[in-house]
Amino acid sequence: MAKSPKVSGAGDTALVKALADILDEAGLAELEYETADLSVRLSRVAGTAPVAAVAPVAAPAATPAAMPAPAAASSAEDMASHPGALTSPMVGTVYVAPEPDAPAFVAVGDTVKKGQTVLIVEAMKVMNPITAPTDGKIAQIMVQNGQPVEFGEVLVVIE
Amino acid sequence: MPAPSKLSLYSVDVASSSSDLAWRAAEDGAASGTAFLVGEQTAGRGRRGAVWSSARGGMYLSILLRPAIASDAFFGLSFIAALAIREELAARLVGKDVRLKWPNDVLAGGGKICGILLEARGDTVVIGTGVNIAPVMPVDGARLPPASVHDLGGLDVTPEDLAESYGRNLLARLDGFVQAGFNPVRLEWLRHCAHIEGQMRVSTGADVVEGLFVDLDSDGALVLRDDTGDLNRVTTGDVELMGRP
After folding, report:
1. CATH class label, B8-191
2. What residues of chain B lie within 8 A of the CB of A99, using their CB?
3. Hey, where are the domains in chain B?
4. Per-residue pLDDT reduced to its tens digit, A69-105
């Protein structure tokens, strides 16, 4: 599958730095920023500094040909091959909490036990708790509450 | 192929919910077809934290199944449960139109008479079914008024009688589904659908989808046509019927 070229010029670096500061200050796990010609997505891998994937929305006039992609860009595509990626067993809607006003099952950085519920996927009024296959730590949560998910889509990453 | 499930129905006077009992039994290795009928639930549940009014006089039943199907076919159980309870209710409400709202609500007399919620864990599914037999008070926030079996003329219906007939009906349908797949279920569901050519609004959690009911898809999804002519598939949500345009 073709991916958007990843570029970062001097202006972009400053932008990413500013966004990373916001991510840090707000204690967020993930942040997306989009303008007419640029889309930036930052995610925090547990215990590390935020990493960024910067993709131009429109093809830029001069894309550097050999610019290396960020090492830990954390799009769902990149995460699909992660050994700790937990994927959706069905098409449906994801819930991060047992009930709308209840606290989330897990947060990034939480330690989970094998069999512990981390999310629910609902389809056709069948509730499917998604459980941790092993003991581990929640490295990333790739979905938001109420989001539609496809079969095989990465939901969380446990390390 | 494993033997068809046999209904083993247990009656319990008061419990938090019939599904809690079924999951406890599942953990203890109970056989497929084990079911719990509860006289009064102290914490009856609907979808996403909604309360299911569970005063004495209703049928609150949870059936534990270990069906011989892959988990990506569990959606079909939502529809066979609806067909089973619809058939049993229609047989007891003479002359009344008893219809289905996607995916598995049962409507009669202008209100909701039955709700079904399923939960799957591993190879086990618990189907929780609540039927208003005695009249019930409306629940805050519900989109439809409640209807009850007694209000609609089924005065001699008891929770025990209905639970046993429904349980047997459901298990027979499960065998059919395992052998023949979803399409016969889909066609029968469409015959009893309350919203053929109806306008619908579905709150899916993230957003609201509106459109004209077109079909029940082969994976149980609702297919709606919006006013630009685009088809949208819905797998989850709170469904509101807007009438026919």
Report:
1. alpha beta
2. 48-49
3. 8-191, 199-241
4. 444 445 666 677 788 899 998 889 999 998 888 899 9
